[in-house]
Please model this.
Amino acid sequence: MPGMGFPARKICKQAKEFFRKMVDDEKAILLIPDEVKLELMVQMVAKGLRTSEMRKIAKLINQCTQSSSKLSSEMEQHLRLMSAFISKHYREKFEQETGVKAEYLRTSDARILYNAFFEEGIIATRNVKDFLLYLVLNDFDEEVLYNIGNSNFVRISAELHETIHQDTRFSNLLSNFIRLAELQDE
Model:
């Protein structure tokens, strides 16, 4: 894209390569939460992309299935509290194991994480630091967080996963979140 510096071109290339791989994988179902679709549309306008580039992005978005799972404010609160908790109490351990410092979820990221959780999907992003909670919400050996930047899944050890789950403060938040999710499914 014209006007893009080297890092932006590299990021664009990585995203295109990832998307091509997923489109070619017959088993892959590409879900796009409403939140992500809106953010992409806003960024297209804010960055002043050419009409041809906006058409290409719109075409890619249209190849995705739109996820419509709804996140209640109470569930969002629990996700954000759990992520704030691991960011505060386990930040160094996450950095040692993943090379990334855990960050707490912002509202839009909580919605994205919930969609992935609800749909039992994989989150693919360059911003893995914002989604490390997703590793804890799933079994430690599941590949659920994919770093587009280095084309690898992010993982944590069974020991760290277990330590967090055994932490009473975290397990109480998680239990409440699961209870709310089950109520929402009814």
